[in-house]
Fold this sequence. Notes:
Chain A is about 35% helix and about 20% strand.
Amino acid sequence: MGAAILRKSDVMPWVRGLLASYRVVAPMVEGEGTIRYRSLTSEASVVLDGRRPLRSPKEHFLPQVEPLLTFRGTGTALAVAPPAKSDSATVILGVRPCDARALARLDDVFLGRKDMDSIYGDRRKAAILVGLACATPSWGCFCTSVGGSPAGTEGLDLLLTDFGDHYHVAVLSEAGRALVATPAFGPATDADAALAEERHAAAIARMPALFDAEAVAGKVEWEAPVWMRHARRCLACGACSFLCPTCHCFDIQDEVTAEGGVRFRCWDTCQFGEFTRMGAGHNPRPTQTERLRQRVSHKFKYLVEEFGRMGCTGCGRCVEACPVNIDIRSVLAEIEGGER
Amino acid sequence: MSNLETALRETAARLLRDGRVALVLGYEAGSVPFRTAPAFVERAEDVERLVWNPFCTNNLATYLPKVKSVGRVAIVAKGCDARSVVTLIQEHQIPREQVVILGLCCSGMVDVERLVPAGGSLAGIAISTGTDGRLTVESDGDRRTLPVGEILQERCRVCEYHAPVIADEILGDPAGPLTAPVEPFAVVAEMERRSPAERQAFWRAQLDRCIRCYACREVCPACYCRTCFVDKAAPRWLSKASTVDDNWMFHAVRAFHLAGRCVGCGECERACPMDIPISRLNRLLDREVRGRFGYVAGLDPESVPPLGTFRPEDPDPGGHEG
Amino acid sequence: MSEAGHLYMPKLAVIDRVVEETWDTKTFRAVFADEPLREHFAYHPGQFQEVSVFGVGEATLCLTSSPTRAGFIEFSAKKVGAVTSALHELAPGETVGIRGPYGNWFPHEALRGKNLLFVGGGIGMAPLRSLLNYCLDRRSDYGHIDIFYGARTPGDLCYTYEFDEWRQAPDTTLYLTVDRGDERWTGRVGVVPAHVREVAPSPINAVAITCGPPIMIKFTLPELTKLGFPDEQIFTTLEMRMKCGVGKCGRCNIGHTYVCLDGPVFTYAQLRQLPPEF
Amino acid sequence: MAFLCNWCSYAGADLAGSSRMSYPANVRVVRVPCSGRVNPMFVMQCFKRGFDGVLIAGCHPGDCHYAKGNFYARRRMPLVQELLGYLGVEPGRIRFDWVSASESGRFAQVVADLTEAVRRLGPYGRPAPIASPTLPTELEPVHE
Lengths: 340, 322, 278, 144
């Protein structure tokens, strides 16, 4: 659908222009150098280079904690109010291809499965995703092994490719074209397109596929030594799930405040012990073995059976975050290779 | 380093063959050159999996309460890890005779981020260890030789007990080559030069980034409560919402629960995906407990933890004025 | 945002009546605050809902009232957690939130003309009561009804005030049993499966509906099979930890089956297909 | 917030009240069996919930009804002050002291001193609402 050129020096002016009519969310450095997608104010410093950030744009659509309703009063005078609307047009910058694909997986659940979750749905409709192709993979990355690519376009409205002092901007949708129709963008020549193609090929070459994910889906079995072998060292923390762009499990809880109270939903994970513990104490998944089996089977078997596509886009965040080096790539390679 | 690895494998094989232990808790090769993974070796012929290198960062003592049901357990323990074992024995989490401590004289663990220049990628990195212990690192097309001593984790640079204080077998040279430790409490004093308002701003900004994944709690050997205060419903100390106030409360209470118990293994900070400098809280309390009660955690399994006892001559409250 | 609010917005209902069934179980009758909803809250026996006690949270409770009795809904709660304990503190006039009805239901259409065998245990009688009263209100649609209901002690039996109504219903037999009787107890003693085996109701043109603590289900299902009930004609409702009730929060899956969407009512045949994780 | 040990400090406070002593009214009292019962989590919960100052008062050493409760508190509370101080809670906000059953004047004085110190330091801070870094967080007003 055409392309354009955007000099790096024109990025912030372009972004400031966007702020006039959009909320802009972009990766920004925090604390000890970790990057997080935050709502932008004009003078913030956006980080568009480097590798895939440890936190993902999932946080915009399914924040770690968000109010579902507030209430006040008691008895028959109890009143309940919905949360503030969050459907204003938003441009999200620096979205990596694996994260854009991940949002499509979340769509299957929040828009597809039975009733639509309108909180998520409103934000999705109002979001324009400006992608950034990956030049160098992070050490946990394996998108090419699960049908993805460092230069994938699925789910994106624009795809930027870093050319050093400027970006090649591939237009992928009408919404993307609208963003490019400003003086900040210059025309792109066929040579630019070829160079972008070359850069993409180079990035892909750096990431040979480690296993055939399609084959894995068929080989995930209930009774298999691979679960216990990897899960034995799992310490049941939530790092892998909370950073995963396709993990979407949440809990709903209430909090009493001075004015009355709020019901919120917050991230939860099948790796925590009480995720499935029932009132009287029965827990169908008592140890980490069942929980690792659930997490891997859900993404590589159950979602394939339900939606025909895997629930993992190979971003590698779980690999990098695991304190005890449980590497899902090793688990999947073992499953594909059959028990050696 | 490799002769230590060989000695470790032989010792483990002997313990397993003689039936002295049912399980050897050690390190095996990780999925990438700069990581190792906790290993659970139960058969003598599997000891080849055991490795020893500057990437054996996990504190394996955290597994002891979880695996003690298998019977007697051997554990590969660095200086800091051994002190965690002392704490677990001291607090009756595992009987002394049920754990065989393979004490490794450690010369420090590598800070993985320092393997590559700033902004460099660890993807596809290759690492080989020279006989002199220097690492040859190849990444992004260039080769570098790095002495381990220059790329140590912060906790190793301040380490005072690189030779385990308790062990059934000692591997390596107790008088080892570790350079003089950096003053451990300098990082604590640095924060104390800031005003309370600046400290509050610093910690609220840091703890706002906490995603409450509890990796810090789960890797910590001293955090073994069956039901953590975080998971209690009545009373509900903490909301499950990761608001900055609840994160603040979680880290404040956890740090206090480790007063006089934390051995400074630094795994909480290493495991934190958000790189929040939480071990500073423990380092502060370590300094205070040493200063006030002359007590260092994890040295003597017979001693009583400082907050579990008192002395009549403890100082009276000073009635702090503003 | 649809005009009824998002997926997780509860409807308000006022507690109309609280019945103390046992020392730890109460049945609540609630009336929707919203007038039209009060009359037209459509649901089927076997469905569940999320009951909110604002400030404490939501609890997954099945509807124990029958849709044939309009104008109110009833749900029973055993005091096990924070929300159920808060529920037990509520008095008539208090407001609760209701989200639902969720899940599938007992196929009462398909059961028409069949003999029904109800096998309930303790609080497990709650979902069965919804279907039972539904069938008793349309008695002529169904064949012979046997009701086996057991509990640990006489004090643990729920809905005792409806026992006579059940006994006197046409062609209906009520078998009550307790694991341990007391001095005033004159009925059967012993676990429910034993009595089902002894009475041995006929499986011909019959369907069994059972719900109770896992231990009772574990021993009841084989008994029903031995009596000749085919797996497809044994229905039970699964108690799983559920939270959203609408297939989003990822909590109640067994394999790729979501209990809140594909259940909670399953046949024994379906249960056999599920991975053993419930 | 004031945690007063039942046998000494609470009795002292009670005496202060019955003898019509005036002390700042913005102190909330929680009676605890012993200063040793005050779990550091109580103190942290106070600051998390928006209190501006905390007083923990117990019996003088040797007077403890349970013999050693206050000795444990004497080890614990200074560490709480150090840790919370490190986190940015000004030391002046936490007062740990001995008040016997007869020292009603001292009780009124301790409360007055702490309230004055806290007044000078200003409010500690309101609990932050549930916030997402990318979305608006103002909750719509609850319409009756």
